[in-house]
Write a structure and sequence with these properties.
369 residues; alpha+beta; Alpha-Beta Plaits; 3 domains; six-stranded antiparallel β-barrel; four-stranded antiparallel β-sheet; flat
Length: 369
């Protein structure tokens, strides 16, 4: 990389800074969660039948045989003492999420995952499976055809797998059998929890709600919480929440840089700035080549053949003896644009940004994954 080209062209680094862009306007409902309005996780154990010879083997998954025997006994079929070795049955764990305010009879999606040595769940059917919550109570019952997106193709001398054929889903495969009682309209206060706590955003939410309702019912408790006092507001809490959740608010984003070193991805915040700093960057490559030479005695002479080592070392250093100087208050996006114009690789950008952060020249939170 030629830093001289970076110096000869002042580029955008020496240009006047553009006017800051207007902060994004989002709805309150997109940045907060309402306390008490939440989802609940469900889990259950079941079996999938109808597989084309790709199910569990009894030797490696004996619990599959026990589950099949128990299910058949419940259906009135006595198989005690029988040697059952089906290859079209697989034991699975069934997971789902119970939405807030879900009612009896509504349907939800479920995910099915094999826990044995089944090769694929394609073409299988999930048999009636109760789904329990953290309190060990049954809240839904799942059953239906399993949809698998993965592919597993096997021949005599080759096998090809795409995706995950041992996991699938049953769309609308569970029916809610028990409701979670929550009397939302009997509350005289509500709590809004910010998904990304921030003092400025919380204050703006408070101002937006009070301004829209014409009375001070919102109070910012801390950067992550805004309390609503509903005792002086006419209408139910659900009605009040419906009237404020679509109010626009400007979200303040922190100055942050996220770097994924594995993929070389760099994500920049809007307000990242750089102090005056000088940068020099170059690459050093060292090449070592061994070329041994064999030395043999003359004909009819006494002696042994020996090998003489011959090594060649070459050091190449790219770069120049000049340094790039960034003026104060330059933005990191301008730096990245200038480096891109010079063909700097993502890994080199990561090294430069980390070095500038260590020098205290970048005013932002640096998150490295």
């Amino acid at each position: 990389m030629k830093w001289s080209a970076f110096l000869l062209a002042p580029l955008m680094l020496a240009m006047a800074l553009p006017a800051p862009a207007a902060e994004a306007q989002v709805r309150i409902r997109d940045v907060v969660d309402v306390e008490g309005v939440r989802q609940n996780d469900l889990v259950g154990y079941g079996i999938v039948v109808g597989l084309n010879g790709t199910g569990d083997s009894v030797r490696n998954a004996p619990f599959t045989e026990d589950s099949l025997t128990y299910m058949l006994e419940r259906l009135g079929i006595n198989v005690q003492g029988e040697d059952i070795k089906p290859r079209n049955v697989a034991a699975v764990l069934v997971t789902s999420t119970l939405p807030s305010f879900a009612r009896n009879g509504s349907t939800i999606d479920v995910t099915v995952s094999s826990i044995g040595d089944a090769q694929s769940l394609e073409g299988g059917t999930l048999i009636l499976t109760p789904l329990k919550g953290a309190d060990n109570q049954v809240y839904a019952v799942a059953q239906g055809a399993v949809v698998v997106s993965g592919i597993d193709v096997q021949a005599q001398a080759a096998r090809e797998t795409r995706g995950t054929p041992t996991a699938g889903s049953v769309p609308n495969g569970a029916r809610v059998e028990r409701e979670i009682h929550y009397d939302f309209n009997q509350r005289d206060s509500l709590t809004l929890a910010l998904r990304d706590p921030d003092f400025t955003t919380a204050a703006r939410i408070e101002d937006a709600i009070n301004g829209a309702l014409g009375q001070p019912i919102a109070f910012m408790r801390d950067p992550g919480t805004v309390d609503l006092d509903l005792r002086t507001v006419s209408g139910s809490p659900a009605r009040v929440l419906a009237s404020i959740e679509n109010l626009p608010v400007a979200v303040a984003t922190p100055a942050r840089i996220v770097i994924d070193e594995k993929s070389g991805t760099i994500v920049l915040g809007e307000d990242v700035t750089i102090s005056r700093v000088a940068i020099a960057q170059g690459n050093i490559s060292i090449s070592i080549r061994e070329a041994p030479v064999a030395s043999q005695p003359n004909p009819f002479a006494q002696g042994d053949s020996i090998t003489l080592p011959r090594s060649q070392i070459q050091i190449d250093q790219s770069g120049t003896d000049q340094m790039a100087i960034l003026e104060a208050n330059a933005t990191l996006s301008e730096l990245i644009a200038g480096l891109n114009a010079l063909g700097v690789t993502p890994q080199e950008m990561v090294d430069i940004i980390r070095a500038m952060s260590a020098a205290g020249a970048i005013h932002a939170d640096l998150v490295i994954r």
